[in-house]
Write a structure and sequence with these properties.
By secondary structure, this protein is mostly helical. 68% of the residues lie in helices and 0% in strands. The termini are far apart. Residues 11-30 are annotated as: Disordered.
Amino acid sequence: NMDSTLHYIHNDSDLSTNSSFSPEEERKSKVQDVVPQALLDQYLSMTDPSRAQTVDTEIAKHCAYSLPGVALTLGRQNWHCLKDTYETLASDMQWKVRRTLAFSIHELAVILGDQLTAGDLVPVFNGFLKDLDEVRIGVLKHLHDFLKLLHLDKRREYLYQLQEFLVTDNSRNWRFRAELAEQLILLLDLYSARDIYDYLRPIAFSLCADKVSSVRWISYKLVSEMVKKLYMASTSTFVLDLINELVEKFCRCRKWSGRQTFVFICQTISEDDCLPMDQFA
């Protein structure tokens, strides 16, 4: 119901206005006319460290949980009222507070629009990418939802960082890698054939050789979708190169597990009609 709620709160002229604020406007007191000002002031005061220590240690987490709803109510034209509070919560010492924001940053990006997202949310997003696994999983689960809101040139910058998701604080955290494979399937629609071949292909092949079977099964689907995407691209050399590498890396692998992987990938490609049968043969 997000779209209808947005339409209800903001009229069309409001949605199309320029979202960037000058430094002078940023310095203005946090005054708005959507909700009673005393109510907003009370909410903003929740991030005061002395209050968190004396009243409730969980108060910052509750504040972070409610922030997208407050932002939606106030509208993007009043984001300057919340910006400082958001940045304070994003750098909170408690990882649970940062984790809460990481899970909702894609929702906030929809509310704020592309200009405010690029200026105010992307730096926070980048910080979460380097955080603890408990925080990183929040941005990973909604990676596609966030990146699709960015302009193409900004989106391409994250291609270099996707490889880092293969490294976790705990190597036994296989669900992290399974989620990465799921997100990469969605990300195929956001990138060109060359980007898929150059950046996503090596990650997919690494996941196909994972020690955990659940990760491998999702990765077979990822590779088959990659084959389909590259075949549909105008440049056919990428799909031929990918198929040749599949044969070389898995079909002719000395280990039986590698050859088994090749069979499973072929099965998935066939079942999902990723290639015409003559091309498959």
